[in-house]
Amino acid sequence: MLANLFLHYALDMWLVREFPDVPFERYADDVILHCTTKAQAQVLRDAIIERLAQVGLELNLDKTRIVYCKDSNRDGSHEHEQFAFLGYTFRPRRARNRSGELFVSFCPAISDDAAKAIRQAIRRWRLHLQGGLSLADLARKVNPIVRGWINYYGRFYPTKLLRSLDRINEYLMRWAMRKYKRLRRRPQRAWDLLASARKRQPELFAHWRPSTAHSRMMGAG
Which residues have C-beta within 8 Å of that of residue 74, sequence separation ≥ 6? Predict the structure, then answer.
C-alpha cells in the first residue's frame, strides 16, 4: 500500500501534470501509457526515466516496451505488436463489426500464462478421484471459482478461456468412468452421460451455461 501511494504521487500525479494529453493505467508497478506516435512514446519514456531517478527509482528497461497497436486502421509494423497486462494479452485479433464484416482490432484476451494457471488449478482439484461426490457436489465445489474466471477473463474473446475450462469436462468424464462400472474404459458413454446431464441441467456447472458452453461434449468438435 505504501508503494502504491508513493507511485501515485511520484508518477501518477506527475504524468497528469506534465503529460495531460497522454491517458494511462497503472496497477502496482505496471503502467500502460497511450501515445499517438512513436516519437511521443520515446520522449515520454526518457522523461519517465528521468522522473524516476529524481525519486530514487529506476525504470526496468528489460520489461519496458514501445508497442505498436496494429489494427485495420494502423497497418504498419513494429518490433513489438502485443503486450500483457493484468492477465490479458493485447494484440491484433480478427473481429466483426455491426454489419458482420471482418476486420482487425487491437483487443485483449486471456494471456497464455493466465490460461496455463487455470489449467493447473483444474488439475489440482483432482475431480476424477472424488468418486464419493455426486455431480451436483462437484459443481458446488468448483462453481464459485469458475464463475470468477468467467466474469474476469470471459469479457473479451471468451472462447480462448473456454478452451481451458474444457479441461473440467475431461476430468468429469474420467470421474464418471471411475464412479460407474458400466462406464469403465468407455469414454464415449461417459461423454454421453455428461451431455445428458447438461441437457437436463444446463446451469449446473458455471461453464455449462448456454452463454458460455463450448466443449466436445456439447458437440463443438
Answer: 68, 106
Confirm if 56 and 89 have CB atoms less than 8 A apart: no
- Answer positive or negative: Cα dihedral of 111, 129, 133, 213: positive
The helix or strand, by DSSP H or E, that contains position 79, with its residue range, turns out to be none
127: pLDDT strictly greater than 80: yes
The CA distance from 217 to 74, in Å, is 40
Residue whose C-alpha is closest to residue 183's, from 170, 218, 216, 191: 191
Summary mean pLDDT of the chain: 93
Name the residue among 158, 176, 162 with its Cα closest to residue 215: 162
Give DSSP secondary structure letters for 81-133.
--EEETTEEEEEEEEE-TTS-EEEEEEEEE-HHHHHHHHHHHHHH-GGG-TTS
- Grid look-up 464463475 returns 147
Burial of 178 (0-12, 13-18, 19+ CB in 10 A): middle
Decide if 72 contacts 103 (C-beta within 8 A): yes
What number of CA atoms fall less than 13 Å from residue 108's CA on the CB side?
15
C-alpha cell at 8: 501515485
> Beta partners for 85?
88
pLDDT digits (tens, 9 = 90+) for 176-200: 999 999 999 999 999 999 999 999 9
Residue range 70-91, pLDDT digits in tens: 999 998 999 999 999 999 999 9
Contact of 128 with 184, CB cutoff 8 Å = no
